[in-house]
Design brief:
Blueprint: H1 2-41, H2 45-79, H3 82-86, H4 93-123, H5 126-146, H6 149-180, H7 187-218, H8 228-235, H9 238-262
Helix pairs in contact: 1-2, 1-4, 2-4, 2-6, 4-6, 6-7, 6-9, 7-9
């Protein structure tokens, strides 16, 4: 059933997001043509400037639209009148939350990939591509020579930090909207208040946790060939991943509990 919900969510959100992705790619192609002609033939700079501004506007609009769609899909489907229909379906509450979470992460990550790809497309030429390939090869050689597999583990941990932080942020918004819906009036204002409180708590608890673990490692005396520096280089980057996962689980459980046991759609 989760697969069907995912298919439904992707289809429902694609109509708002995909046109902006297409517009961004199209403007990147137009900008590339304009920039090439400007450099080679000294064309008027105004069309180039207008095209670049439009590219920037579409880029910002793409991420803002994705964020708004993410919020409205959760609110409309589960916390408004549509919730009467959604909660009568033979679907578990956590399936609805998971489908919306995965869809939101997918669109945000895809938007970042498309943005990065178009920026590279605009910035690169033959010379810069050769330089980029050389730099990447040099970095890979340095990682292999100095850190070995640990270098790739650091890269993997940074990617996981980004993904888990994104999931934690989305689930925090879901939890805040669910908390706000417990109030009989001023639910939007209550949701904003819940976001502020949850964000402050997460920063305080998360920051305290990272500091405590890092301080403990720094003062941990080890023997033999294993040094404190090697312990920190191996594990310190994984601490935010663990903290993000714990916060994500807490927000998910809280949201699922409210929607399952305490939801009032009146």
């Amino acid at each position: 059933m989760l697969g069907k919900l995912l298919k439904y969510e992707i289809k429902a959100t694609a109509r708002n997001i995909l046109p902006l992705y297409g517009a961004l790619i199209l403007l990147a192609l137009i900008n590339k043509i304009f920039i090439g002609r400007e450099i080679s033939a000294g064309y008027n700079i105004y069309p180039v400037g207008i095209s670049i501004v439009l590219y920037g506007v579409i880029m910002v609009a793409m991420f803002i639209t994705t964020f708004i769609v993410m919020i409205l899909r959760f609110y409309k489907n589960l916390l408004s009148d549509e919730g009467y229909l959604m909660f009568t379906l033979p679907v578990k509450t956590w399936h609805n939350i998971t489908a919306k979470l995965i869809t939101s992460i997918m669109w945000i990550v895809l938007g970042m990939i498309i943005t990065f790809a178009t920026l590279i497309f605009l910035a690169f030429n033959k010379d810069s591509i050769m330089l980029f390939n050389y730099r990447v090869a040099s970095i890979i050689r340095d990682i292999n020579g100095s850190l070995g597999i640990k270098g790739y583990m650091h890269i993997l941990s940074l990617m996981l930090i980004g993904i888990t932080q994104l999931a934690s942020g989305i689930l925090m918004l879901y939890a805040a909207m669910s908390i706000g819906h417990l109030f009989k009036s001023q639910r939007v204002l209550a949701s904003f208040g819940a976001v502020i409180v949850l964000d402050l708590l997460s920063k305080f608890i998360g920051g305290t946790g990272i500091f405590t673990v890092a301080f403990s490692m720094n003062n941990f005396h080890v023997t033999n060939a294993l040094t404190t520096e090697s312990i920190i280089s191996k594990y310190i980057l994984w601490i935010p991943v663990i903290i993000n996962i714990l916060f994500s689980a807490a927000y998910f459980i809280l949201t699922n509990y409210i929607l399952s046991k305490r939801l009032n759609l009146e």
